[in-house]
Write a structure and sequence with these properties.
Rossmann fold, binds nicotinamide-adenine-dinucleotide
């Protein structure tokens, strides 16, 4: 067998060891299900076998489903019936395990999540190793699904509906002691006695029967008690408000709990499979899994030139100890690198190091770091004003003022101090990398590494290739980003690169809506309704309207006669020059910021931009926010600014919070259907302006029906649903 092996000892106890040699972690895959069904039948059918222990040959018990496998199935245009059968096979497997007449014990030697923990729940008894890393839980909701192999039903019957809610709806995971308290496991034991404890239980419990299989079972833990009924009466509305109805999984989980716990167990399992099938046939699960798990994990790997040997940065130079430089120094030191943090004067560099001091003080206070670790991180950051200190750095990143002249000056000074093999990177947010590299004596070793603010909370780096950046520099830069445990997206040099360019369309569209007479509160609510974390007018106030205005002015200067005014030009000009409300830091912008109350939309907006009597529909505004950004992303693909749909989607989610349920702007186009999307954009262009006009490239792509992601079905490699 490929995924497990089974040995029977002299007492007749079968030891089933999960150990998939092809994977670092045991996962639920088609092979695993087939092999586990076979081993259950072996245990059930052999009179000499008294019972079975299920454990793992790897450091962890089992993670959830193999997400690549699930993604393959989700991409294969499943019918509801196929999706139901897909879910029923492992569900029936677990049911057979618990009703086959022989005792099964899960000996959890490490983490057991998702499908792995569902298997443990199906066993008659659970023993877990006393190790904080051995967490258990059912986090399927985070990938847009639910535990569809009996997990919702067993959990609710074992620990009650109320205690199940955080585990199922929030994907909360718990360590061994809390798992014991909650009733998720039966015993916590030291690692060396794990198997002995499991064996002891089997030999003492020859014919266990699950609670719900006892005659006359009418529900446990107050399934029908009034407090549960009360929870069920407000929780759906609460979830709808939290998720803006963009995520169907939490509501489906509630349905499984409420309806399922009123049904006999076997009917409840069927109900759970039906809900699971619906989620599988919805685009949200596919989009979530593809972008936030598979593509995020693969980011950077696919495009890393394989011929370049793997590299590590032991010493990093950071020039400019302001907001960004200080953040970069912190994350690099936290990842184990020595860091020289250099500024014009030593006291500025020392100030920059204080950023790390403050972050680490908070981390220690909150128990997220120990004093010893915090001191070790700080000891790795050396403030300096002397370029000679950069001598041993393999990589230097500049984060000085956004000014060509200043950047050219520090590039030359750094290159004079560092080794000929060292790389130089710019953290510029707007200046073309190729132009900045003109100040370098070795443009092949010059690259853009665009971090986001605050660096320690934004785990994305836009890696920008200049015209002359070498493949070796790219490979080494991707290795550096991996060392930071951040996600890279690869971008070619172009105005605004990728993230700033598409993000601008979001805030510009909001300002255009305001000018067109849409109520400001409606604009903010529509963006949040579509799934953006913050309203665009509030966002504009945070960054200050000066920033997008500066970008527009730079573009105007660079493009000369070819410059086209963006749709928000008039609003920006008025807010800056006439109304003079720039944003939060300057006392107010689209919002007022009273000292003793929460911010509120500035009432003067109604006079400056009078709202129309008749307002557009909420859906039409949501669609405009999503479509304008998707269209700009498609233009970035067309122009080769972005090379892979995966980079575009991962970048959009991580950089500016494009709604996760869509999977990203290109996943959104694929979900709508490229032909329908293009046709709808043509309609929007008629109503709102040429910025919505799809390019001939996109129209041709739509005519060919060519999506941005080739589904497994189209590639002719759709895996068959695993049901027989
Ligand atoms: P900042 O003004 O906070 O810091 C700039 C630092 O550079 C200051 O400490 C300054 O003393 C130092 N500096 C200036 N000239 C120098 C010189 N000749 N030698 C050494 N040090 C010098 O700016 P910031 O917000 O950290 O931005 C830095 C860079 O990062 C800019 O290129 C900016 O576009 C880019 N960026 C900023 C953000 C952001 O959100 N702030 C995000 C991404 C990228």
């Amino acid at each position: 067998m490929k995924t497990l092996h089974c040995e029977i000892d002299s007492d007749g106890v079968a030891l089933i060891t999960l150990d998939d040699a092809s994977k670092p972690m045991n996962v639920v895959s088609a092979d695993f299900i087939d092999e586990f069904i076979a081993v259950i039948e072996q245990v059930a059918g052999d009179a000499a076998i008294k019972g079975a222990i299920v454990t793992s040959g790897k450091p962890h018990f089992m993670a959830g489903a193999d997400l690549n496998y699930i993604l393959g199935v989700l991409g294969s245009a499943l019918t509801l019936k196929q999706a139901y059968e897909f879910s029923q096979k492992p569900s029936a497997m677990h049911r057979r395990l618990e009703s086959c007449g022989k005792p099964f014990v899960a000996a959890l030697n490490g983490l057991a999540l998702g499908g792995g923990f569902e298997l443990a729940l199906a066993c008659h008894h659970r023993v877990i190793v006393d190790d904080a890393k051995a967490i258990v839980g059912l986090p399927e909701v985070t990938v847009g699904l639910l535990p569809g192999s009996g997990g919702t039903q067993r959990l609710a019957r074992m620990i009650g509906v109320e205690k199940s809610l955080p585990i199922l709806l929030e994907g909360k995971t718990v360590g061994p002691s809390e798992a014991l308290k909650l009733g998720l496991v039966d015993r916590v034991v030291p690692a060396e006695t794990l198997l002995a404890a499991a064996r002891e239980w089997i030999l003492g419990t020859p014919n266990p029967v699950r609670l719900w299989d006892h005659k006359g079972y009418r529900g446990n833990n107050g399934l029908l008690n009034p407090s549960i009924v009360e929870i069920m009466s407000y929780r759906p509305a609460q979830i709808a408000a939290q998720t803006q109805r963009n995520y169907p999984a939490p509501i489906a989980i509630l349905d499984c709990l409420f309806e399922g716990t009123l049904l006999p167990f076997d009917r409840a399992l069927k109900l759970e499979s039906k809900h699971f099938a619906r989620l599988m046939c919805d685009s949200v699960a596919r989009n979530l899994i593809r972008t936030t798990f598979v593509n995020k994990r693969e980011a950077g790997k696919l495009r890393r030139p394989p011929q370049v040997p793997k590299s590590t940065v032991t010493k990093l130079g950071v020039i400019g100890a302001g907001l960004m430089g200080s953040g970069i120094a912190y994350v690099a030191a936290a990842a184990g690198m020595q860091v020289v943090l250099l500024d014009r004067r030593l006291e500025l560099a020392v100030d920059g190091r204080q950023y790390s001091v403050k972050l680490l003080e908070k981390a220690v206070q909150r128990g997220k770091s120990t004093q010893k670790d915090a001191e070790a991180i700080l000891s790795r950051i050396t403030p300096s004003a002397d370029y000679k200190d950069l001598a041993a750095c393999e990589l230097v990143i500049e984060a000085v003022f956004e000014d060509m002249g200043v950047k050219a000056e520090v590039t030359a000074a750094a290159e004079a101090a560092i080794a000929g093999t060292a790389l130089f990177a710019s953290n510029t947010s707007t200046l073309p990398i190729t132009d900045l590299a003109a100040a370098s004596a070795r443009p092949g070793q010059f690259i853009g590494l665009h971090f986001f603010s605050p660096v320690e909370r934004m785990p994305l780096v836009e890696v920008i290739m200049g015209k002359n950046t070498s493949e070796e520099t790219l490979a080494k830069s991707l290795d550096f980003v991996a060392q930071l445990r951040m996600t890279p997206i690869l971008v070619n040099d172009a105005r605004g690169f990728y993230t700033s360019r598409v993000f601008q369309t979001f805030i510009h569209e909001a300002m255009k809506m305001l000018e067109d007479g849409v109520e400001p509160a409606f604009i903010e609510n529509a963006a949040r309704g579509a799934g953006f974390p913050m309203g665009p007018l509030a966002l504009l106030d945070e960054v200050s309207i000066e920033l997008p205005w500066k970008i527009v002015q730079q573009t105007k200067e660079a493009l000369g006669a070819a410059f086209v005014k963006p749709c928000a030009y008039g609003v920006m000009q008025r807010m800056l020059n006439e109304i003079k409300r720039l944003g939060r830091r300057s006392g107010g912008g689209f919002y007022d910021y009273p000292v003793d109350a929460p911010k509120r939309l500035w009432t003067g907006l109604a006079i400056a931009f009078p709202p129309e009597l008749e307002q557009p529909s909420l859906q039409s505004l949501e669609r405009r926010f999503l479509y304008i950004q998707a269209l700009e992303t498609a233009r970035c693909m067309e122009e080769g600014v972005i090379l892979q749909a995966a980079d575009a989607d991962v970048g959009a989610l991580l950089a500016w919070g494009f709604p996760t349920w869509t999977g990203g702007p290109l996943s959104l186009i694929d979900t709508v259907g490229i032909a329908k999307f293009t046709a709808e954009c043509e309609g929007l262009a008629k109503a709102h302006g040429v910025r919505y006009l799809p390019s001939p490239w996109l129209r041709e792509r739509a005519a060919r029906g060519q999506p941005f992601y080739e589904t497994p079905a189209q590639a002719g490699k759709a895996p068959a649903p695993c049901a027989a």
